[in-house]
Specification:
mainly alpha
């Protein structure tokens, strides 16, 4: 995910190196069972590319759809959002906001409608099906453990910043 999002965001090698250094610091100070490594990578790279959107995501002001639209601004970004890691990232972002965030509930309802529609493009139909199946099969306890994960990871990122040598 690091390479894909770095390319999608057009990050320079210097910025990538800084993100990787910060990633190693965050890993060192994070409990292993709460690491969520691919999502941590995505948050770090989003912060490097668009700090305002990152802050909005952490504070709950940016909607998941805004973040995925931002990622999908380029052809490679659009492609990524329909791949396994892109779908997993969107699910993680949704998990961290459910069950209390109304815009995320509406996004899930939209995927449920798409899942029932027969005239969608194949990739969109597969994506909607995967997302709906995931949330229909997830246990409530698991979802409860993921709620707030973005804030937790952001706190870890914040703790690592005084040690980052940018």
């Amino acid at each position: 995910m690091f390479t894909q999002l770095s390319t999608i965001f057009g990050l320079s090698l210097r910025v990538q190196e800084q993100c990787f250094t910060q990633l190693t610091l965050v890993i060192a100070i994070t409990y292993r069972n709460k690491l969520y490594l691919p999502y941590l990578v995505a948050l770090l790279l989003l912060k490097a590319k668009n700090e305002e959107m990152y802050e909005g995501l952490v504070k709950g002001n940016a909607r998941i759809k805004e973040v995925t639209d931002f990622i999908g601004q380029t052809a490679k970004g659009k492609e990524f959002l329909f791949e396994r890691l892109g779908i997993a990232l969107e699910i993680f972002l949704m998990e961290s906001r459910l069950p209390n965030d109304e815009p995320t509930k509406l996004l899930f309802e939209e995927y449920k409608k798409q899942n029932l529609t027969t005239n969608l493009p194949e990739l969109q139909a597969k994506k909607a099906k995967r997302i709906v199946q995931y949330f229909e099969n997830i246990e409530k306890d698991w979802l409860d453990n993921r709620t707030g994960a973005i804030v937790y990871l952001a706190q870890r990122i914040g703790l690592s910043e005084p040690f980052n040598t940018k």
